[in-house]
Amino acid sequence: MADKRDYYEVLGVERNATADDIKRAFRRKAKECHPDQHPGDKEAEARFKELNEANEVLSDPDKRARYDQFGFEDPMAGMGGGNPFGGAGGFGFGMDDILNSFFSGGMGGSRRSGPEAGNDLRYDLKLTFEEAADGCSKSFDFYRTENCDVCHGSGAKPGTTPVTCPTCKGTGQIRQSTGWMSVMRTCPNCRGAGKTVTDKCTSCGGSGRKRVRRTATVKVPAGIDDGQTIVMGGQGEHGLRGGPSGDLYVTVSVKPHKLFRRDGSTLLLDFPVSFTQAALGAEVDVPTLHGSVKYRIPEGTQTETEFRVRGEGIPILQTKQKGDLVFKVRVETPRRLTEKQKDLLRQFDSASTGREYESKKTFMDKIKSAFNG
User: Which pTM was predicted?
Assistant: First the structure.
């Protein structure tokens, strides 16, 4: 068992995680490496199987309790020193169960003939900087697979019903033997449904499913940030055989602003001021997302100095509070001066005593100290 990773580590949860925590962690990680998203990727396939195995144990209270007590060395495992988590004994699942889960959409002990949850969907929603900051409602179109509205998902022509599959006798599985080993496989005739359709629905061609264009409206909370996701429960693809629908994950993409940036709930702004304003101090109009505010910068303000305007930042999610606006002063050196302006600056420089420039005076003192010992 030295090459097996701890199941809690595989799912990325603490050992005191709740059942809901485990379920959420499994669904999130499984989507990242699902074979449907990575066709032909053996590493993703192995990762997916590892997640399924961990979820099978930790989502079952009895199996989890035994794992917490004994780890991989479960004394109830089968004799012969084999894997305590596969075959007879142990946690009761082997490679055939994992493969069955792999092709049926999840671990949980149910066969393909039982209810199966629909796939989750993802939609990338583009927002302006202001829409993300203030919140909004957005409508968008997307496609999802639904049960046929004519045959209601059965695949059979209205007035007829599916019949029991003659190959698997309704179990959805067949047993194949290779030498001494017997393995359960999904029935190739009914694809695990346990029933077959002799008179197909003309609307869906007997599949029981249709790809449909739908419109959804999502309420975007104020303060949402780029890359965050809103979950619209039950808006994903319809489940099979009475299973629940999947969820629709709406991931936000926020367009950059021409003036502002954000760091969490803090709104950031680079604010240029003139040499005169910085030297003498001035009352300036600082732009915000909703107009401007008056702010007094003190005389002698240096470039890169930051000032904070309380409550003019980004709303904090799920609260009534707002962050602050922090603007950084950029002192602009004048260009293309007239001769008169240059002459006035020379007069100013001639009248300077050196005390006006603290950094320069400190720097010159350091030079003198360095060369004079």
Answer: 0.59
